[in-house]
């Protein structure tokens, strides 16, 4: 019989680490990857030789970048694996680490994410050349989805822009975010537009960065005298891929709905019990559609709920208190792992100015090029 994560050995997040997401630089990935890993080890109160398995989520670095990075921590002989699953790479590495601990294969595992896009020479006219070309395809896709949604549900440009205003405000308070500037409604509405009503503030930045998370069993918590009050239990880890959907059905939304429903069932909670969510808001319309798919809002009412402050920090459920992909950034490989770090910080009550009051249960959601979706549900111990 298939088991859920909650039916296996309990898994706890005990250490988190981030290196700030930023624009592409000449800084080597090994440097900021090690920075995040060491921060997670320090936060957990353990050392590298205690780690029994290691998973690295990365989409842009090529073959076996993890080995070149972790050799600087010590060659301990542990199993290591690189995980590539598009935008869900970091989320998948976290799932694999959780499964190692839950199954009893290990007592302590680490999931990390790191990525660094290649530096692309600028064209003679000063434009970034191929980088813009590669980014315009998804921008056009989500601009079309935005217009379709607006026409169907009567959503205003101001309601759409409220997503970006909220998330940039959250990101302005996050020292790890790529974008740390609060933006007004007027700025989010202003041209130039990349496609349809979307300007760059409606779209996430692609940069570089790293995140790491340590997960352990109860046996490891006892062995290392780890504090229960700073431990966060992983209640569910669900990974699904797309099916064949009906004509005109949005596969990202349908897949998100299925995955979130399964995760909530396995965690034995309902959507209205979620206090904080980090979701895949690469474009403003995605937060609206995914909030509805997860059951936070009724169909067609997500934009109105966001404009009304329902998903602000201090609202009914804080959505993307980190700033989300729109402001925190989307370096791809570490994005999903960084979401786990933010959820953990929130459930510990350590998020400072971004703290959602009385946060107990959180959900992390990532989609990988529409083909896969991962949802994790965490709860304070």
Structural account:
36% of the residues lie in helices and 18% in strands. With 381 residues, the protein is α/β, with parallel strands linked by helices. Strands 3-2-4-5-1-6-10-9-7-8 form a ten-stranded mixed sheet, with helices on both faces. Strand 2 (53-57), helix 2 and strand 3 form a beta-alpha-beta unit. Helix 3 packs across helix 12 (335-348) and helix 8 (251-267) crosses helix 9. The longest helix has 24 residues, at 130-153. The radius of gyration is 20 Å and the shape is globular. The chain starts with 11 loop residues before the first strand and ends with a strand. Mean pLDDT is 94; it is low at 122-132.
With helices defined by DSSP (H or I, 4 residues minimum), what is the helix count? 12
| Helix percentage | 25-40%
**Largest beta-sheet characterization:** 10 strands, mixed
Output the CATH class name of the largest domain: Alpha Beta
**In sequence order, what are the helices and strands, one letter per element?**
EHEHEHEHHHEHEHEHHEHHEE
Structural class: alpha/beta
Question: Architecture of the largest domain in CATH?
Answer: 3-Layer(aba) Sandwich
Any idea how many domains?
2
Strand order of the largest sheet: 3-2-4-5-1-6-10-9-7-8
**Mean pLDDT, all residues:** 94
Strand residues, percent? 15-25%
CATH superfamily of the largest domain: Thiolase/Chalcone synthase
Instruction: Using the CA coordinates, give the radius of gyration.
Output: 20 Å
Shape: globular
CATH fold name of the largest domain, please? Answer: Peroxisomal Thiolase, Chain A, domain 1
Cα end-to-end separation: 27 Å
